[in-house]
Amino acid sequence: MNDDKHKLSMHSGRLEALGDGIFSVAMTILVIELKLPSVKGNNWNDLLNALHQTWTEMLCYLISFIVLGIMWFGHRMMFEYITKTNRYFIFLGVLFYMVVCFVPFSTRFLAANTFKWYGVLLYGINLSLCNLTLYAQWQYGIHRPSLHAREIPGEIKKEAKKLFLLSPIVYSVAIAFSFYLPQVSIAIFIITPIVYLIPNIFDKYLP
Amino acid sequence: MNDDKHKLSMHSGRLEALGDGIFSVAMTILVIELKLPSVKGNNWNDLLNALHQTWTEMLCYLISFIVLGIMWFGHRMMFEYITKTNRYFIFLGVLFYMVVCFVPFSTRFLAANTFKWYGVLLYGINLSLCNLTLYAQWQYGIHRPSLHAREIPGEIKKEAKKLFLLSPIVYSVAIAFSFYLPQVSIAIFIITPIVYLIPNIFDKYLP
Amino acid sequence: MNDDKHKLSMHSGRLEALGDGIFSVAMTILVIELKLPSVKGNNWNDLLNALHQTWTEMLCYLISFIVLGIMWFGHRMMFEYITKTNRYFIFLGVLFYMVVCFVPFSTRFLAANTFKWYGVLLYGINLSLCNLTLYAQWQYGIHRPSLHAREIPGEIKKEAKKLFLLSPIVYSVAIAFSFYLPQVSIAIFIITPIVYLIPNIFDKYLP
Amino acid sequence: MNDDKHKLSMHSGRLEALGDGIFSVAMTILVIELKLPSVKGNNWNDLLNALHQTWTEMLCYLISFIVLGIMWFGHRMMFEYITKTNRYFIFLGVLFYMVVCFVPFSTRFLAANTFKWYGVLLYGINLSLCNLTLYAQWQYGIHRPSLHAREIPGEIKKEAKKLFLLSPIVYSVAIAFSFYLPQVSIAIFIITPIVYLIPNIFDKYLP
Questions:
Q1: What's the pTM value of the predicted model, to 2 decimals?
Q2: Within an 8 Å CB–CB cutoff, is residue C41 touching chain A?
């Protein structure tokens, strides 16, 4: 019992700061990697042609930026409930950050192979792993009351589970389509983030 | 009513930290992308020639750095008044960060096409979108009293509106000039940031 | 004695923030430097071949990410005990950050020379220096009670010493093997991080 | 007088966070830009030759890392005394960050032209500007009591002035030498940071 006074608080602030850093570098890096459109003449058509040549690349980066924004939001929400950390929670956090760091890489791969099944495959797997590792961290967290800042309502747990698992399922469908209709896969990548913007049960608890 | 104890605070600190990260990467990246001047001989003239070849590029980066600094300041001011967040405020924040991340890209494009109308066009649109998305976030914020830290004086709202909308208007003029006198456009890009340094109503509330 | 009221607190928060920034850039940079696999055809075999060509590179980056994650954890733990700083503590911190910043460089070198003794040598030296500089900072810190936030239990000091010195010793063995059996060296680089995930005395003090 | 309740606190925390971000990116970027040594054979001599070819580059990066670390320390010290900000203090801060962001650029230039007068010239000017802009910010800050967290002892002001102006003076000497004996200039760049590690009056106020 005399260990009690040596108990550490291990506030989650540092882990959040590392995450904010990683997200901000990953999001900025997305745009850094865009190739400059090269305009061949001085007419509107020349500009439009140049932009047209980079539009799939541009689109992939826009999708990834929004997706990373949504993941950041989910990650940020988690720390409203969980404000202490331990070795395993941090380890799961590092895994999550690792797959987040791969997003600029798989985006670049998708941009180079936009309507190819393998482009869709690696991208879909990467985004799914982001959700699944964050879900693993959340699951570990909600089962360790010593990490909690407050009671976690039952409906929040249910809603979070639904939101975490939705995109891996949807992205599996995108991957399945990629072998025949990769355009549909890309459409799924565009639509899915929008679903996360629809009001849900969380909003009731937000200011 | 029993949801009240589950109400989350959603302090804006994390969103600000993400923004500080994004601004710091975007600002540092500007300079990373500068090409090294290559000095051909050992005289002053050789150095001056080498610097002369990179001066438009250098100038574009300096303008962008100062502009990003001013935007960071506006963004920072907003969080003196608004200290809580919700899904929509954060979504608008992510949009703002997205266009901020594009600034190194459109700066590179302007540096490669400094006195071309399309260089001015994309750069002007990008900077305008930065102001407009930040303005959208501010507008959303000031109409949600549950996000406020303090009362927002009426004159602050008026002044903020003026400052947010000034640069999109001025940059439209710059774009209009670009088709005939791109030098004037560049001059506008140089002068506009200076306007934001002139004392305004905000200063009265600052230490 | 009238200097007492001028005594500065020099909280470690800023040094930690600098470290979080450096770790987050270093970790994200690791992945940025990965070359895109180039898929030559449209079959599974083509994808597998392309991935196969990058697997050693991929592996080096994964190891480094996990190693940096573990070092970040060690660094983070230190600041549970030490929350004030002075010139020398900060100088040792800057040295630690310097060798951390070299990890993406030595990882790139290992990826280019995976089964060569010199690849293993530089990488092993770099990772060892990370541990040794952090250990130097910790040693300085624990001998300056004016920097402490709380009493540091004796068994924590012993365990920390063990954990700090373990990897330099193990990496020396990896370097020794590299001249004859570089595969064993790489295996040691893979296994060592796992050792740091085994529960240890620290866990008893964590939430 | 009814403006008093609308007075903003404008704590310096955000400006410090932006600075920590910029320093951490600039410091990490230094190392990213290092070229990999290419080892031609399998002997110790081959490794030593490869390292020998990159040693001046390596040296420039090491100097810059330590110099940036010392500047970060100076910057960090300033915020022990000044904890509130206004438009002009922030503007001077952005100028300081701008020249800090140029350090990886001028380091790259020095690495490409190590023993050339123009390499030394740009590098020396850049480092001097870092000190001078930070000094300008400090000077503005110490003359605005409304920004202070605590009384600033007279001897601190004197010592700070000395430390801020020392390196621009010394670097001017380095530049003067560069036209005849660039080796001396590089020696000055190596020695100067060490001077800042010598105990000074500040230490008396630190924990």
A1: 0.96
A2: no
